[in-house]
Amino acid sequence: MDIILTCLIYVVGLEHLAIMALEMWGRPETQSKAFGMPLEFVRQVPAQKALANQGIYNGMVGVSLLVSQWVLNGRSQLIATAIFLIFIVVVALFGSLTVKKEIFWLQGMPSLVTLLVLLTLLI
C-alpha cells in the first residue's frame, strides 16, 4: 500500500507542476483550449498575468506536496500530505462549479483517490 500511495502522491505533485507549466508558459491557443476560455481573452496581457499567477500557486502546491515526502516522515508526513490533498480537492470542486466541470475529473479525482488511499493508512 505504501508504494501505491507514494506513486499516487508523485502523480498528483507532478500533475500540478505540469499545470503550472501550461499556465505560465503555455501557448495561448493551448491555454484557451485547456481552460475553456476564448482565445482573444487568453491573449490579453492581464489574462496572461492571471494565468501565470495561478500557475505559481499550482506549482507551489506540487512542489510542497513532493518536498513533504522527502523532509517529513511517519504520521506528520501523512497528515501534511492529507492537508495538501484536501486543499486540491476543494479547489478542484470550486473550479468545476465556476469554470469548467472537467477540472474536478482532471485535478480533483486523482487527489481524492490519493487521499482515500492515504486515509486507509491513517485510520
What this model shows, in words?
It is built from 6 helices and no strands. The chain is elongated. The chain has about 120 residues and is mainly α.
Descriptive terms for the model:
mainly alpha; 123 residues
Largest sheet: none
- SS-based class: mainly alpha
The average pLDDT is 95
Q: Which regions contain 5 or more consecutive residues with pLDDT less than 50?
A: none
Number of strands: 0
Provide a short characterization of the protein structure.
89% of the residues lie in helices and 0% in strands. It has helices spanning 2-25, 28-35, 39-42, 45-71, 74-98, 102-122.
Task: Give the SSE layout.
Layout: H1 2-25, H2 28-35, H3 39-42, H4 45-71, H5 74-98, H6 102-122
Helix pairs in contact: 1-4, 1-6, 4-5, 5-6
